[in-house]
Each structure stands twice: as structure tokens, then as C-alpha cells.
Amino acid sequence: MIQKRTLISLALGLLGATLLPTAAWAQTVTAKFSVTLPEKSHQGLGAAKFAELVGQKSKGRILIKPYFNAALGNDVQVTSSLQGGTIEFALPQTSTLTGMVKEFEILDFPFLFGSEQEAEKVLDGATGQKLLDKLPAKGLVGLAFWENGFFNATNSKRPITKYEDFQGLKFRAVQAKISQETVKALGANPVPLAVPELYTALETRTVDGQGTPSAVIAALKLNEVQKYLSLTKHSYGAFIPLVSKKFWDSLPPADQTLVREAALETRGYQRGVAREQAKGAETSMAAKGLLVNDISPAERKRMRDKVKPVWDLFANDVGAELLTEVNGQLSSK
Prior knowledge:
Strand content: 15-25%
Strand order of the largest sheet: 2-1-3-10-4
Largest sheet: 5 strands, mixed
Radius of gyration: 23 Å
Number of strands: 11
Order of helices and strands: HEHEHEHHEEEHEHEHEEHHEHHH
């Protein structure tokens, strides 16, 4: 009898040992997701969709909680927190990464893309993957490219219909050197500001204008403190759902796969929302009194020619090979 009990105990012990890894993997994982824009913005809705999909795919084991309106800090701050492992997910614009990976500056070249389709071709293909592959060495993992959209100019002084209309404006720049040089090349005076500071700066006339996608202008209610919206499309912005590499390395390979799959599945949804919101925003803001004007193709080409020195200035940073590779995929050039 004693021998039989011993054998049973041994068998149960071995069974428990084999179940330990599974039990450990089955534990609930919680993660913070920093989102700069409001919950109902295209960025916020994309983050919420991603969190929902990860929850579904993991059967509730991985719970991601988005924090909207830059509640955890601006893009520069939260990217640093990702590297330190104190935040698990963030959704910065690619400009935020140019200080650590210079090749990302290619995406900030003014008037680079002529359409959303051109941007998708570059970002979703081999070129985009090459850029993402440079992030793990910086303590970050990039899952995909989502859409912020084409940047349009607003200001409180005058409609911008031609290059000369930028002259002398105090114009907000993203906290990246190439953004500041682009503003200079357009003839305006760059004022680097993070998103959370923008509304007040425009309201107090610390700056006259700024450039962001129409959907973001509406989400941040900048139309309340601006008079003119000019559809310059002078830059294209992309978000990257980023993961802290410290957190990423703690996940089993199967969970890494499902998280990446969720980001890719969310991509199409988020881009669709971004484009719908851009169209709706321009119409709704015009109805509220914002004066909206388009730019002629000839004048947009003239603006692009005027900012060509910015391309030359940053060509060495991104590398001739990458610049040639991207240009080769652009039908509009």
C-alpha cells in the first residue's frame, strides 16, 4: 500500500511539473498603452481596436489598457518609458524616432508621397520592414505602420494658397530637426512644440499656425483657435504601434505572434477611420466657420521645389541607397 501511494504521489508530482509552464503562460498579463490623441480620434480608435483584438486572440490572457490624451506623457517621454520598460505600448509618430534611428527621417521628407497608396506601398513592403528592423537595438519593437494622414496647414493670419503665404508665420514644428528645417524652407519661423502644448500656444498667439492632418485638427479642436485651413498636404504622417522590448522579450513566441497579427489586422481598420475622419473633419470644421481652401497641383509642385534643399540636407542621414529605393516606388515623381 505504501509503495502504491508513493507511485501515485510521484505520478501526480510529475504531472504537476509538466503543467507548470502552461500555468505560467496562462497567467493574465496587463499592459499600459500610451495614446497621444483623444479616445475618439483615429489614433484612439485604432489603439482600442488593437487592445480588443489582442484580448480576443489571447482569450483574455493579455489585457491592454489604453491611456488617451497623452495621460502618460508626450511621444518623446513615453518612448523613453518604453525603452525603460515602465510602459508596455505606445503609438508615436515616426518623427519621434528620428533622433535614435536617422533612417526614419526619410518619412518626414516634405511632399514625399503623392497619395495614401504610395505611402502604403513603401511602408507595408520591404522598405518599411527594414526601418522596423532597426528598432530592437534601441529597446523597441515596431509592429506595423498605421496612418496619421497628410498634414495640412492652419493659421490665424491668412489663407495659404501659394508658397509666399507662409512667409513670416510663427509655425509650430514637430520636435524633430527635419520638421523644423521644412518650416524654415517654406519661409515660416519654426516653434518646436509637443501636441499637449499646441492648443494653448495657438490660442495665446504664441504661434500663428501649425500643420497636422485634418482629423487631428478636429480631434484637438484647433479650429476653435485658428481661422484658416489650407490643404497643403505638405507631409505624410505615420504612427507605429511600439512595444517595449523588455516586455516583448517576456512574452512567449506564440503571444508575440498574436500581438503582431493584431497590429496588422488593426492597420486596415485604423487607416480607414483616419481617411473617413479627415473628410468629415474638413466638412464639419468648415460648417463651424473655419475657412478651408485647396492648393492647386501647380502650386503644390512649386512648394515641393522650394523645399528641395531639405531633401539635400538630410540625404546623407538616411543614406543614398534608401532614398533611391523609396523614390523608385513613387509613381508621382
